[in-house]
Amino acid sequence: MENMEYVIETHDIIQSFPVSDGEFIALKGINISIPKGKLTILKGRSGSGKTTLMNLLGALDMPKSGTITFDGNDITAMTESEREKLRKNEIGFVFQSVALIPIMTAYENVEFALRLAGYKGNRKERAMQCLNLVGLGKRAGHMPQELSGGEQQRVAIARAIAHKPGVIFADEPTAELDSGSSVQVVKVFRDLVEKEGITVVMTTHDTGLMGVADMIYELEDGEIVESDEE
């Protein structure tokens, strides 16, 4: 990817966890570059290390060794409060479990996220803008239980983009959805990349979704075994 600007780069990332008989090496010298304003997929079977890697890229965890730069700043050299500020201002997260607040409408879930983020603009206007971006403006008044699984995940995406982050991390966002809903959710990510210029990093083991990616990294046993520019 010549002349490509990268928002996140890793250098020799190693991550390990203590286990009963010593140490489990989850990531073994990972070197990847996440292009800005593109959709990157981290693919691999369960246990391959893709979620562990995503948690490091999103400044949720710290590696045992190696460096990770986010917009040129070394995450691994930051204090916890600096990483928290980075997550709050620059990053949005979408997880496999949507975890919407059940007693709040779709609109209220998004507006509440804006309040938590300390959003200074018009919260009502921004919440509706985000719901419209994911195709759910007309469902703003519905409770989560009145929405399909795919619609709930799209509300979760609206919530994640509400504070205008530069990067969205989505960990297996389609794992609990049927194929039709999965396609709708991935189309939302594709639209966010193309229309909003947001960088999306998504983990999945669904080979049917690879065609939407600009960049694919495949992990196996904690190592990058293949990288592919689509």
Structure write-up:
The protein has 230 residues and is of the alpha/beta class. 31% of the residues lie in helices and 29% in strands. It has helices spanning 50-57, 80-90, 106-116, 123-133, 149-161, 179-196; strands at residues 6-19, 22-30, 33-35, 39-43, 65-70, 73-74, 91-94, 167-171, 199-204, 215-220, 223-229. The protein has a six-stranded mixed beta sheet, sandwiched between helices. Strands 1, 2, 3, 5 and 6 form a five-stranded antiparallel beta sheet that branches. A hairpin with a 2-residue loop joins strand 5 (65-70) and strand 6 (73-74). The model has no long low-confidence stretch (mean pLDDT 92).
List keywords for this structure.
five-stranded antiparallel β-sheet, 31% helix, globular, alpha/beta, six-stranded mixed β-sheet, 230 residues
